[in-house]
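Appendix C. Worked example: Holliday junction branch migration complex subunit RuvA
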Amino acid sequence: MIYHLKGRMVEINPTYVVIDCNGVGYMVHISLHTFSLLNDAGEAIELYTHLQVKEDSHSLFGFREKSERDLFRLLISVSGVGASTARTMLSSIEPKNIMEAIASGDAATVQRIKGIGAKTAQRVILELKDKVLKVFGEGEVFTSQNNTNKEEALSALETLGFARKPAEKVVEKILKQTTDPTVETIIKLALKNL
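Step 2, the predicted output written as structure tokens:
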């Protein structure tokens, strides 16, 4: 296993970089998040890597932050999520936001990623929720209170007989307009608007 590469970046694109390590050029697939953390070609860099060995290819994936590589490895451990899908996930949403969505059970955020359907989003959350908290710890994965309050309020509104989609739109609007609302406040304001 190649743990990391340290060398001179000779080529940079949004989807890959070429790193010269003592005369050997490695093509390394990257996410847009890692791309945003890199500078121009010619600089010396270090990328944490993951080597994927398949029957017909060997692919090297690189990450500027070790935590992003750890999250990538967790994502590809889920059935139905391959390396390309995991890279798309890390390119679509900041890794920290993906961790928060998984930790809080926010399937809607995960589902917004291109290529992720409802079943895959639920599977990712179900299989990774405990692992994300264990690998990254409670401190690094900050589950926002708003997300918890939002889910509790939506659950209550559904119990009261309101459809999820319209209730979700109203609750989203309330969260944008109100600073740190309690569950009760969200429900009261939602009832006035539904």
